[in-house]
Cohesin subunit SA (Suricata suricatta), 1134 residues
Amino acid sequence: MTQRAPSEGQGACRRGQLRRRDRKRKVTVTTEATLFEMVALGKHCVQMAVEEWVRSYERDRELALLDLISFFVQCCGCEGIVTAELYRSIPDSSVVHKMTEKFDQETGLYYKKFLAYPWILTILWPEKLQNDFYPIVGPGPFWKRFRVNFCEFTELLVQQTHSSVLCDGHLMDTVICMLSSLTSSAVHSLRHTSSLAAMKLLTALAGVKQGTCTSKYRGQRLCELQSVSRVKGRHKHSVELLDQPTQQNRPLTIDNIIRALFKRTFVPRYRDVSSDIRVICVTELGCWIKLYPDHFLDDNYLKYIGWMLYDKDASVRMQCILALKALYEKRESAMKLRVFFHKFKKRILSMTQDRQPEIRSECMQLLRLVSEHYVGVFSSLEYVFLFQFVYSAYRPLATAAGELICKRLLAPPPQEGLAAQNPPDEFERNLQNMKTLIDFYLQGEFHRHIPYLVDGLWDAAPTLVRNWECMTSLLLRPRGRRQGLTSQQEQVLIEILVAAVRQAAEGCPPTGRELSKKAARDMDRTRRWREHANMSRHFVKVLPQLLSKVPSREGHEAGTREAVGAQGQAGGCRSEGRPGRRPSPLLCGQFAADKEKVTPLLQIPRYCNLDVYDRDGLGSYLDSALLELDCLVQRHSDMAVLEACARAYGAYCDEGGSAHRQATPACSRLVDMLVDALTPLLDVFIQHEKQGQVLGHHEMGRMCSMLRRLVAFYSTHDLSSWNLYEKMDSLLTLQGHQGSLPTEVVHCALQGTYYALLWQIAAATDRLPPQAALLDLRRRLMKFCVACRVYLSHQSKVLSGKAFILLCDLLLILSHQGPEDDAGLGLLFFVPDQLLQARLLAFLREHVFLEESGPEGPSRVYKEEDSEELHELFHRRNMLAVFCKLVVYNVLDMSAAAEVYQFYLKHYHHFGDILKETMTRTRQNDRLRNALSLLLCLQQLFQKHMDTCGLSYDPIGFICGPFYSIRLLARRFALTLGFDCAPEAAHLIHRRGLAYAFSEAPVAEEEEGDRQRFPNLSFLLLLAEFSCKIPLAERGAALAHFQDSIPEGMPRFGDGDMNPLLVYRKSLTKTDDAAQGEEEPAAANPFDAICKESKRQQELPVATCSTWTPDTLASSAAGDPEPRTSSSSPNSKR
């Protein structure tokens, strides 16, 4: 590095350098270690570098400043030459012309001249920095440490000189001139490095000024205290020292430096084109306001943070929110930001809908702090808008919204000072908070996802959602004569309880909720195990009471009548093996009689540690729980309750648990009782059917209830030892012969036979049976497949749908049992033939892709009151999903998916996600076969269109109408090809498509008999939509192949924009409008721009909310609920 210094230097140069006599003379500076090298050595050398530079500045001010300037320039990545010439020796008129920044084409160097009083500095460096590298952005740990050391050097420079040479009128003037000139450079490295140095200088100056003000305030306080001592004649020596001036009177010098540096560096750079520089400016501005609030906590500086809230870069917006959040954490600074918040309130509220989830969560925390400091800052509707984020898929945002709910809605814990005078009623407070939370869920009309609500409050209100005693007490025994929970509130509380139990057991948020990028929740395993053990110990005691809660007198009498009727319907079945203990109607209380309440309660044993029964001596509670399960199985006939009971028995009968020895015999006795009750009923039923007689209604109801119970237990327990397959198969055989069995009986027989076969396959997989047994199992499987195939055409939609789902699931299992020639499990291998595949596709067309009634058609949006339609839609989605699994797992040929891809656009609203996921999975399996399936789908649709419309050439029909919908589908298919290896699939589609377009012989046109036209020529319009996936470098080869594919004697390109040959050729010759990313390909003609679908921004339903407000919640918690109504307000813009 060479430097040019002025002749008016300060005597001899340091470190043995010669005296500078002429300002134009170049002097080579040889040092043992430059400032750059010392800073790069490490943190321990930064202090030494600053101290050495201060000493050199005291000896030779001009040479030290040149060293400092060279250090900053070298940190910018410029390894060129720095020269200097005196400013006062140049006429003022030529100074402006010296401030240049140009590229010299002759030398290939980039040079910049700028003023750094008292010099004009010139920097030369190569035009292009190597790999755009400069030290503060260098990769690796070394350059990251260098950036930290660089910032520390800048701050130490101010701290070491603030009491000596900082305010000498020469040092900071030169530095400010140098930094302001570098920050205005067009070179990014100069601008970035100098901006970082200027901002760090300002941070250090703000810290020094605040320290000076603090010392001055402390000195004044000490003088006031010592003045009292002076009157009393004490500490006279200290008073005399305080009266002596210790430093010069320079109160405004540092403030002037701060203003000048802010005006000349921050103001031009806070709106820099580079987001890195903008981030530095906003971050350091937040530090200045926090360090020196007396100066920076003003609207003149806060406005920059408000303006940068609208920045397009996410990192800038994040730093603005973090800066405001740091200010609102202190009440002193928060009180001075009231005007600022009201000015930018709308923008901050809208940032809760930012694209970046991290910004949304930080913004929510900021709004929570604002609500704590300002009373009435948010309206009721604004609170409703903020509360809904507790259901957000991003967990930190949901937790922040949960904290806001706790601060705004829930009653705070009592203060310690009032505890001694008036002890708080903990139960009453928890009761009020829980009812408030329940009313928030019921009246909010946001979502119906209680697990998301519990997870949002898991860390925000642990004393509420983890208070097992409080929740179970509210469910079991309302206190005194106070008003208890309504039936709807009990239902919500039970769901909250079960969701909290699940999260405490699994230790993870519900499915679909995204954790933060930093790390998942790191909870101490010992603490989590202890909480899980305490929860299990509590619920093994309370669960029998929850299942046997005694209702009020009226509810008790109704429950007793239902229990007696159920026992009579079950044939007087009892819990055999327990003499003297008969299930009492009292045990079947309020919760047991309500299937919607007892079903979630039966999930609790699956999340409890059942080893506490033996470890803590709680065996009596296990017997009570099994007795209640026995009673529920006997009482209920609903499939959901029975399956929940079967899963609960499965948790108790787990071989690894301590409850296995007691629960397994109880479950076996229950199954024995059900089988013994079913056998005579089934024999009588079969005999009556063979004789053509009808079984009585009462007996038929009993048999159906027994079948449902056994099928429910068959789903989770292996009941092969009871030989239920023969009983179920006899019903299917009888239905095949007679054809008059009730739908419910056949439904249970199909499901039971399917479970029986699955358990037999599982047993054969665990332990290979003899070949004869495998052949017998194969015969049973084929027989069941034939039965399901017959039921596909049944008039009952319930039976046909069930047969379709069971058949698809069984085909998926059998196709993965091994190769067909294997003598072992390969005997069970089976794949569907073409006839069965065609039958499955026909079933989908008839029962899944239905024509929706109403003006909206397939895009109809179902509401909450359309429960039956929603259930039917869910069933149709399930049937489509099981069929798509057969395609994804190669059970069916990939060409079978072409039939369902035809409905991708027409039924996109209801089935688009399933079909899109199918395309993605098949593309991952085999990209070329997936491309052929897409092409086959277009060919089938095109052929249907030609059969309907004929060979008429209608250009208008190509841009609107049915053919245009096929073009849109082709455009969507092109987007699903992806990015990796997409050209291969696109080339394959083009080659096969061209062959199809010219495959049939030309026919004469009706209007002009002398001209002939290929029937499939219009298919080229569909192929044109895939041209965007061919790289520009390969389009020439594709165009040559297209020209070679045109038959001889055919006119090359006719007139008209909608000539298929011309459109296809233009799609291959485009070079500037190729689709990139997920954007749609450019329109092939001007009419496409008109027909394109409009894309609207999706907004959260801010204005769609009920009349519920926090005030109505408070009245509801106090026992004065308001009627539930709904209203809407105008939509608000984001």
The chain has a mean pLDDT of 78. Residues 926-1095 form one domain.
